[in-house]
């Protein structure tokens, strides 16, 4: 597969976050292993393969979470982003993981994995284990790792992200906050648009429009245009409908570049599809609508572009297997 | 020194000492200096770090929380404490939760200052004492300053703790002198202890003086500064062996300060009674408002009633 032809060298730099990782001495001694350590986020790979690896990693983790739920090994709730992975990897890979800040919502696993690669910490967290990324305190929708945070309150994270952006503006950092079409009903979003514009916050508002809020379709809850919402606040807007992670990443790079250079907020609208249920088994959409959603699955087109996708899949699958095993072996968090 | 000056001085000192600190709120800039003049002079001295904000209480508390999370402590002034309901989600589900929920990986040094209380004729939505709705929120410390403590020192302690604080100030109290703890009536072997906080302290002190002068009832006033988490041990030790306690608060009755006092005192006192504000909104009529909020006469009468019970 002609992957290098698609990749635009230098367009999407691998984060130095990955380069910070030390290669274990054992790997250096063993000449049969690759020269550089293979990273879970594929920092050593060309762009298309890297974005694909991150997407399939997210997909496999979330499919496994739903399995674990059906096996009674998970409790509480979990919101998967199956179908929306292109947004997560596209936007996160446009960031500087060393300094930029990410705020995500209840549907945060994809964003989290793309930012951190901490699959084991995530699965253990959702399984309520002491080895979880928040020691079993936060669970699925309350994650914290370096400058990544998520919270389960719709819209409430928006002003917090504005504040984070302002606090680190002098360091050239950008904050990204992920919202959904369902969040458009929350007043906090509009207060945040106003505050971000008034104070010049370097914050990128990303709206993932999957046209459904839990079980309620967008046409019953959202008036007017989501794309046009931020412009009257003096906020530059980008919009995209395509579910291609490379295109999303390029667009996000442009948006992030603007936010960083101008010290101004930006509104990035991404039309997407939630292929899975809101949480578990609560999908009431008609079969035809679900079929339309599945037709926009971002994974199959990427497999046409990544020659060794099967090998990448196997690598990610074994990573998830080991993470689940390791999490299951860890003690339950009990305080 | 007046209460407003004590707080204002502390704000200046804190801004000078911590170059990351930001003060924000509605109409806080000079020459106005805030609706109650607490931030007067601050924006002139620290132009870049005193921010006047849109009328957007939820938004500004959220924004302040985000700044605090990323290393810039913030003191937020709510123009009227009543407006805190607009920021409830940010306080309860964000600022107060982050540290614990994120497994102690972060800290949120934010102070929210909220002028509460009536007796100014401001009516139903500008006279309330809403602090009880924020007491018992894990991760949040709620304090109420008063003129027998050191209002400025409370701000210093709150910021030093690097954790979310809600500080209740009182609109009427701003212009009163700071007397200090030594001025509180604490007779040996008191007949009655009045437990109270915030704006009711001055009325309790006046009632205690009348009780000893007119009725020869020795009355101690315990002014509780930290409301939540409730300092049970401290309150118990201040009540000592006294068997009669009256709890006085200005907010609506029930699920409040008196309830918390009673919980701390279960099995420790013989007689307990409680005074609170009305169980309906506070009227604009000044006279009517005075009739409803616990003042000197009502506190005195409650103490005499309790004393007569034995």
TrEMBL record, chain A:
GO molecular function annotation: oxidoreductase activity, acting on the aldehyde or oxo group of donors, disulfide as acceptor
SUPFAM superfamilies in alphabetical order: Thiamin diphosphate-binding fold (THDP-binding) (SSF52518)
Necessary cofactors: thiamine diphosphate
Keywords of the record: Oxidoreductase, Pyruvate, Thiamine pyrophosphate
Family annotation (CDD domains): TPP_E1_PDC_ADC_BCADC (cd02000)
InterPro entries: DH_E1, PDH_E1_Alpha_Subunit, THDP-binding
Oxidoreductase recorded as keyword: yes
Residue ranges of domain Dehydrogenase E1 component in the record: 54-309
GO terms classed as biological process: pyruvate decarboxylation to acetyl-CoA
Name of the featured protein: Pyruvate dehydrogenase E1 component alpha subunit
Species whose genome carries this gene: Rhizobium loti
UniProtKB/TrEMBL annotation, chain B:
UniProt keyword terms in alphabetical order: Oxidoreductase, Pyruvate, Thiamine pyrophosphate
Cofactor(s) annotated in UniProt: thiamine diphosphate
Keyword Zinc annotated: no
Transketolase-like pyrimidine-binding domain location: 1-176
Protein name: Pyruvate dehydrogenase E1 component beta subunit
Any GO molecular function: oxidoreductase activity
Domain of life: Bacteria
PANTHER family: PYRUVATE DEHYDROGENASE E1 COMPONENT BETA SUBUNIT (PTHR43257), PYRUVATE DEHYDROGENASE E1 COMPONENT SUBUNIT BETA (PTHR43257:SF2)
